[in-house]
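[audit] Reproducing an earlier prediction to check determinism. Same input, same settings, fresh worker. If the tokens differ from the archived copy the diff job will pick it up downstream; this log only records the rerun itself.
[audit] input (211 residues):
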Amino acid sequence: MQSVAFIQWCLDHLNYWTITLLMAIESSFIPFPSEVVVAPAAYRTASPDCDMNIVLVVLFATLGADIGAIINYVLARTLGRPLVYAFANSRFGHLCLIDADKVAHAEEYFDRHGAIGTFMGRLVPAVRQLISIPAGLARMNLGRFLFFTTLGAATWNTVLAILGRSLASVVPEDQLMARVTTYSHEIGYAMIALAVAIVVYLVYQVKKGEK
């Protein structure tokens, strides 16, 4: 209960440091929607009384996402698959909204898409917070992992920031999250389709070059 109250306090007092902290939590073992952090922060940058900058909102949100992703990556790489699944099946794992099926789903996603799956996974609602775990289990190169994680997180955070800022002039703040939730899902699916198209194109180019 205290942790929930702390998160709510951070949401009520959004600044660069609370954005970083909340996004680190969001990307680690206590997942909650990034929409409730980035979009409201960007929404508030439209106010002349706000001292935050939308570019820095994206930057610190991405930094926080990287921190949380690294925590998951290092823990998975250090503990290994048996302990990760034991945690997922534990009571504490369930309190963190994690279970073995979700971890297995993230592993399957990573296995299908390889390294690029770390980027694409940051755009998929059901996979975003957990994609770092299979990367750690597979002992993916840390530099490569950070590159794709940062690219994916920055892309998603930019979309949320633009969405939040664009709604500032047309939607009251108490209606913001309902609109953001609707639009973010639609945009997320469009971005996944775009990412898949890019991967297909790159694979085609590689195959073409081998002929």
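[audit] rerun output stored. Observation attached for the diff report: The first helix runs from residue 2 to 12.
[audit] end
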